[in-house]
């Protein structure tokens, strides 16, 4: 199996895994309730507020990445904008967004669990991605790999950001990314609906999470 085929399979499994994970997360949220909500309401609200901020950062960051990568991902080695800060900014902002959604459950355990699973998942995905990029772009990618951090930005990479004055954006593809990324806010709204149903006694609380 060549690396391109392996990458395509990995992408399919990643999307399937995300869908299964989202369903599992919703079911778990529907059957549980935050222990902080009644004991420390102010702290519970602060967790939710933090979650909305992080989810928004993830959303905006992913849109920023999409400006540069939409329509170009398989054709060119993108090293501008967020891709000049880290090699995989899309996964970095996805991780931030996932942690944000976790905090929107108004718990501390949920974001930790989600972050752990997501980090392992993305590290495995990145390994496949980089093998593909190495095969596709050779020495060009090797120079990029040595110059730019993988997932966590450094002060040097932040200071060295490359932002062109003009960039040809494929609007149709970018709009599709916009719609797909907006799902995160629908998920947060669903969490609020679930919380309201619990408060009204319309959903059972099988266990409490802190």
Give a description of the structure.
There is one protein chain. The chain has 210 residues and is mostly helical. It has one domain (38-209). The protein has helices spanning 3-31, 36-39, 41-69, 89-103, 109-137, 139-147, 155-159, 171-181, 183-199; strands at 32-34, 207-209. A two-stranded parallel sheet has the order 1-2. α3 runs antiparallel to α4 and α5 (109-137) packs antiparallel against α6. The longest helix has 29 residues, at 3-31. The protein starts with a helix and ends with a strand. The mean pLDDT is 89.
Secondary-structure map:
Elements: H1 3-31, E1 32-34, H2 36-39, H3 41-69, H4 89-103, H5 109-137, H6 139-147, H7 155-159, H8 171-181, H9 183-199, E2 207-209
Parallel strand pairs: 1-2
Helix pairs in contact: 1-5, 3-4, 3-8, 4-5, 5-6
Q: What is the molecular shape?
A: elongated
Number of strands: 2
Measured distance between first and last alpha carbons: 45 Å
Strand content: under 5%
Number of domains: 1
| Overall average pLDDT | 89
What oligomeric arrangement do these chains adopt?
Answer: single chain
For the biggest β-sheet, the strand order reads 1-2
Task: Determine the fraction of residues in helical runs and give it as a percent range.
Answer: over 70%
| Main sheet attributes: strand count, strand direction, barrel closure | 2 strands, parallel
- In terms of structural class, how would the helical and strand content be classed? mainly alpha
| Residue runs with pLDDT of under 50 for 5 or more positions | none
Order of helices and strands: HEHHHHHHHHE
The Rg value, from CA coordinates, equals: 19 Å
Count of runs of 4 or more consecutive helical residues: 9
């Amino acid at each position: 199996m060549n690396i391109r085929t392996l990458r395509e399979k990995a992408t399919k499994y990643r999307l399937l895994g995300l869908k299964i994970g989202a369903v599992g997360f919703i079911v778990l949220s529907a059957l549980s309730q935050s222990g902080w909500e009644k004991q420390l309401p102010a702290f519970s609200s602060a967790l939710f507020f933090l979650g909305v901020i992080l989810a928004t950062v993830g959303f905006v960051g992913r849109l920023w990445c999409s400006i540069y990568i939409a329509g170009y991902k398989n054709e060119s080695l993108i090293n501008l904008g967020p891709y000049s800060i880290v090699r995989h900014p899309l996964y970095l902002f996805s991780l931030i967004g996932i942690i944000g959604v976790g905090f929107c459950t108004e718990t501390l355990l949920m974001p930790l669990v989600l972050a752990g699973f997501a980090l392992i998942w993305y590290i495995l995905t990145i390994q496949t991605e980089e093998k593909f990029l190495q095969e596709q772009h050779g020495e060009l990618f090797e120079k990029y790999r040595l110059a730019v951090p993988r997932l966590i930005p450094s002060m040097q990479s932040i200071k060295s950001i490359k932002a062109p004055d003009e960039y040809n954006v494929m609007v149709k593809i970018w709009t599709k990314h916009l719609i797909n990324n907006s799902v995160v806010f629908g998920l947060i709204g669903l969490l609020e609906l679930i919380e309201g149903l619990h408060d009204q006694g319309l959903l059972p609380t099988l266990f409490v999470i802190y």
